[in-house]
Structure formats: structure tokens, C-alpha cells
Amino acid sequence: RWLPPGVYGPECVDGTPRDEYRSDVAFVGSWFAYAHIEHWGYRSAMLNALRERYGDRFACWPKLGEDAVRNEALNDLYASVKVVAGDACLAHRSTRYMSDRLPETIGRGAFIVHPAIPAAVELFPEGMGVSYYPPGDWNAMCERVDWWLAHDDEREEARRKGQAHVRATATYEVRMEQMLAVLEAEGAFK
Q: Which stretches of the chain are DSSP H helices?
């Protein structure tokens, strides 16, 4: 049985915008070294497309030589960025695999443009804090980013809807209830 990723509910709140994090577009995650060697070329191509299109309007976090941004600082980072560019290991090869990157980003109050993985699209519909592009189609990715950058009101509405959707459907508490329901349906508690 597949259990989608969940997130810690109390972290699904808006952060405080901070000047040191401000950018139009950002990528948050491994960008200068990556554990999934088989995926590194894919991620590098994505980051290069973003750098080429957005120049100094694009930022990667954490900064080179710094620790990962975590806890309240991560919420503040997301509150300071207009659009987060997302990636998913195996995005170009898997229809079900997804990490917690998508629900965590949306739940912490960011708006993300992400590869269209069928499981992700099913769980987090278009416009619920996310907009999708075909995996590996960097032109489509940038077109989605451009559209959302140009539509502040729509982006803010989608961001708020997405955050509420994550709180209602993708917290650890919700995932545990789903797991217990499956176990109960299969007679595990007899």
C-alpha cells in the first residue's frame, strides 16, 4: 500500500518575509551537491534553465557553504519568495514516487511550480499552491513561473488554498488516520 508523504502540521503556517531571502524565484534543496547521482544531470539542467531565464532574480538555498534552511527560517524563506521552482527525484521516470518536498513547501506557505507527477497532481490539484509542468520541459516550467509572477492576486489565492489543503489532507496526523483505517479494514485490530 502506498502512503503519500506527510508533513508536521504545526509548521504549516506563514512565515515572516525577510530581506535576506527575497527573490522572485528560488530553488530550495541540494543544488551544489546531490545524493542521487542518477538524477543530478536532470536537476542541473533545471537549475541552469532557471539561472539563464531569471539571472539575479533567481536564488538557490542554502547558500554555498551554509547549512540547510530549517524550522521557522524555512517558513520565512518561503514567505520571501514569489515562486519556488520544484524538482522531484525520478520525476521523469516515476508516476507515484514523490518526496515530502511538495506538501512541505505548500504547507509552509509557498507557491511552487513542480514537475507533473501523476500522484502529485492527484493529491495537490493545479492551483492549490502549485502549478505543474511536464518533467524536463524547461520552457514550460519557465512559462508557468512567468505566468504566476505576473499574477500576484491569483498566486496569493492559490497559495492560501494550497496551504489549507495541506493542513486538511497531508499532515502526519491525517496520514496516521489513513494508515489506521487501512489496518482496521484489513482486520488488523481483531
A: 37-54, 71-80, 101-107, 118-123, 138-149, 152-169, 172-185
